[in-house]
Amino acid sequence: MYQELLEKKKTLAVIGLGYVGLPIALEFAKKIKVIGFDINAERVEMMRNKIDPSQELESNAFDGCDIEFTNDLDVLRKANFYIVAVPTPVDKHNVPDLIPVTRASETIGKVIKKGDYVVYESTVYPGCTEEDCVPIIEKLSGLKMTEDYMMGYSPERINPGDKEHTISSIIKVVSGCCAESLDTIAKVYELVVKAGVHKASSIKVAEAAKIIENTQRDLNIALMNELSIIFDKMNINTYEVLEAAGTKWNFLKFQPGLVGGHCIGVDPYYLTYKSKKLGYNSQVILAGRFINDAMAGYVARKILQNIIKTNSNIKDAKVLVMGATFKENVSDIRNSKVADVVKELKAFSLNVHVTDPYADSAELMHEYGFELTPELANDYDAVLVTVPHDEYRKLGDDHFASISKEHAIIADLKGIYRNKITSRQYWSL
Description:
The chain is α/β, with parallel strands linked by helices and 429 residues long. The protein has two domains: 2-211, NAD(P)-binding Rossmann-like Domain (Rossmann fold, 3-Layer(aba) Sandwich); 226-427, 3-Layer(aba) Sandwich (Rossmann fold). It is 40% helix and 14% strand. The chain is built from 16 helices and 13 strands. The protein has helices at residues 2-6, 21-29, 41-48, 73-76, 99-111, 128-141, 179-190, 203-233, 238-245, 267-277, 284-293, 295-310, 338-347, 361-368, 390-393, 397-403, and strands at 12-15, 34-37, 67-70, 81-84, 117-120, 150-153, 172-176, 197-199, 318-322, 351-355, 380-385, 404-412, 425-427. Helix 5 runs parallel beside helix 6, helix 8 crosses helix 11 (284-293) and helix 12 packs across helix 13. The radius of gyration is 24 Å and the shape is elongated.
């Protein structure tokens, strides 16, 4: 398989061309023949015109790539090595939503042939690939894993907005259903991953490794958020405390903040879901999730408390929220906890304006029911900076004084204006 891919006698396909799938597909397409498959015809057409729908890649990223973009199963059927990179979200009850990954499995079941390879990159709970995806493929194809086709799992490590830690520079965890498949899958990924690969002993181990990467971060951020609540009651600045503690060589440097997006705020629920199925109810992991999910309400209440102190009529009060994406310098609004903050503020009958240099106003309206404000006012009672976009880091005290009332509070969740705001009341997590 490896040699035939290298000689372009066989083709690799990536199913799902979002933040994860498209960079992977393009990286492979610099070395071998690739089919990029996505069910969204509009997105496919954009990529054919060298436009990344996720706005992560420039048009020159498509240059020199041997890739065919399609939403046609007959085209996909030409492939021999399939990589699945579809999203794995949770529903409104925080239960894993496996519909995208099961539908991708159905697609593979319709096109897979004897001798083909399938590798999942979507984040799932340990056991999902073999227990949920394989049966779907085998039912539709009539093929048997290991005997007729090979299966593997290699968790994605794409970090949206990060131009330093790219697919080629991060060690790739790989796994396979047998020794032969593991060796081949590792060699294929080594084509594009300069940092090398780590061979996991089983598919389940690789799945578990991905889950705990983000669960660990979630728990550490939850600790920082809880500390910020405690320190706020003590009138201590959390970032000053972290700066002092960070002088010790083994102190882990995490910060408080809203935890959204499609990884850290989602992945732990996959692990606790599987754990519950096995008869164990997680305590520490879910406690961290509870703290992080509650931060939007905590922040909104802090804003409200300050407005009540300084404004006799809450319904006349105006709040500006700066930042709507789930993290800095990206356009992705999926699972953005800023939307929860806006919802909480509006529930208090406050007039809320939202601005963001990256987010799409129509997309925000579709997903969360609010739009971006076209023009800023000059009389805000509170300004809440939720996402530290580079454009916001350049702003100073004069800017905030020009858009807010004298009694206004500048709430800086990530502490980027610490010791810089002097003309207004300042607060951070």
